[in-house]
Write a structure and sequence with these properties.
heterodimer; B: mainly alpha
Chain lengths: 32, 406
């Protein structure tokens, strides 16, 4: 049961990485 | 098992839970109206995110069986073994799960505090990954150092009644680093970063103050004299700091600032947090006074740092937490709490040294760790929204919704 819960949460976190979102700023900005 | 203690901790947990959405309103009022929803969302989403992280692995890392004084093991993952039987090391009179729940609310609000530093320019996706990583690799170990029975700062004798170092120093320093890494907001000349709704901020501060009684008095873990001591100290310091900040702004700028009163109350609450169960009422007045003066000056000096800490998280939480943790080493009295010991004022200079070590270690670990996490998140998903989205506002561009349809 714990493994299933862990997979559900971590799976959702991974999904957030590929879900649509605005493009990051990749210019001469302060994080470059 | 004590039913009175259990009831008090459950109520305190609910009080501390309320602080996180209250923080969302406190911050939400301070940003421009095009970013209010995204700012509130930071706090609300963290409440959900860390609630799950905490029961799955966060509590185990923070409070689980000790490994080298640095971090808890994974023995309690998924709350395995954390049931209704009390844990004699942490809370002998209440169910272990009640203690876990109370601590969860501290883990929730700490990453939410940082969000004020990078308001109005951070991608939501980056915020989510940063918060999860920060809670796991920064908050959980520091909580273990200070509050776990085997933690190295706990063994050294560091005093932190309710989270001066664990919550406020760690988040305040992280805020300074985050603001520095993300850089300044753009377009502030054309559209100054004025608070869009001061009433929302004052309401948020008031709810924070209300919830802080659970934060500090609940940290007594018993419904007894120590909770009352912490309750009185908390209210006293908050009130004194609000009066002081208002007076400072009145003297400095010619008018008694309403937002200043709200910020001052929060600064006092921050500063009394580590001390609340160890100091007298008189000391809490002095701590509130010091918080009002020092945090006000820290916020005024912000432009010299050349860092766009949008909502003054470092000036209030980093500076206020550091001040409170060090003053705990000055004003702590065994007559107030025999379990805490004496500070400098009562003949124990070593306590002050220990407090400085605890603060220094938290500054270093949170500062370096936050920088590394930010660089990792930037590499993977990118930290900052594009310029045109920042100018349009994060509510519309990140969430597709607007706060006001007026």
């Amino acid at each position: 049961m714990i493994i299933a819960a862990m997979v559900a949460f971590v799976g959702m976190v991974v999904a957030w990485a590929i879900l649509p979102g605005s493009s990051p700023r990749r210019d001469e900005g302060p994080t470059a | 098992m004590n039913s009175g203690d259990t009831a008090w901790i459950l109520i305190s947990s609910a009080l501390v839970m309320l602080m996180t959405p209250a923080l969302g309103f406190f911050y939400g009022g301070l940003v421009r109206k095009k970013n209010v929803l995204s700012t509130i969302m930071h706090s609300f989403f963290v409440l959900c995110l860390i609630s799950i992280q905490w029961v799955l692995w966060g509590y185990s890392l923070a409070f689980g069986p000790d490994h080298f004084g640095l971090v808890g093991g994974l023995d309690w993952i998924g709350l395995n073994g954390v049931g209704m039987a009390p844990n004699p090391d942490y809370a002998p009179t209440i169910p272990h799960q009640a203690y876990m729940l109370f601590q969860m609310m501290f883990a929730v609000i700490t990453p939410a505090l940082i969000s004020g530093a990078f308001a109005e320019r951070k991608r939501f996706k980056a915020f989510v990954f940063f918060s999860l990583l920060w809670a796991t690799f920064i908050y959980d170990p520091i909580a273990h150092w200070v509050w776990s029975t085997g933690g190295w700062l706990h063994s050294l004798g560091a005093l932190d009644f309710a989270g001066g170092t664990v919550v406020h120093v760690s988040s305040g320093v992280a805020a300074l680093v985050a603001a520095s890494v993300l850089g300044h907001r753009i377009g502030l000349t054309a559209e100054p970063a004025e608070p869009h709704d001061a009433t929302m901020t004052v309401l948020g501060a008031s709810l924070l103050w209300f919830g802080w009684f659970g934060f500090n008095a609940g940290s007594a873990i018993v419904a007894g004299n120590l909770a009352i001591t912490a309750f009185v100290a908390t209210n006293t310091a908050a009130a004194m700091a609000a009066l002081t900040w208002t007076t400072m702004s009145w003297w400095h700028k010619g008018q008694p600032s309403v937002l200043g009163a709200a910020a001052g109350a929060v600064a006092g609450l921050v500063a009394i947090t580590p001390a609340s169960g160890y100091v007298s009422v008189s000391a809490s007045i002095l701590i509130g006074l010091a918080a009002g003066v020092v945090c006000y000056l820290a916020v005024q000096l912000k432009p010299r740092l050349r860092v766009d800490d949008a909502l003054d998280v470092f000036g209030v939480h980093g500076v206020g937490g550091t001040l409170g943790a060090i003053l705990t080493g000055v004003f702590a009295s065994a007559a107030i709490n025999p379990g805490g010991g004496n500070g400098l004022l009562y003949g124990n200079p070593r306590q002050l040294l220990v407090q400085v070590i605890a603060v220094g270690a938290t500054w270093l670990y949170s500062g370096i760790g936050t920088f590394l996490i930010l660089k990792l998140v930037d590499r993977v998903v990118g930290l900052r929204v594009p310029e045109e989205e920042e100018l349009a506002g994060l509510d519309a561009t990140q969430h597709g919704e607007l706060a006001y349809q007026l």
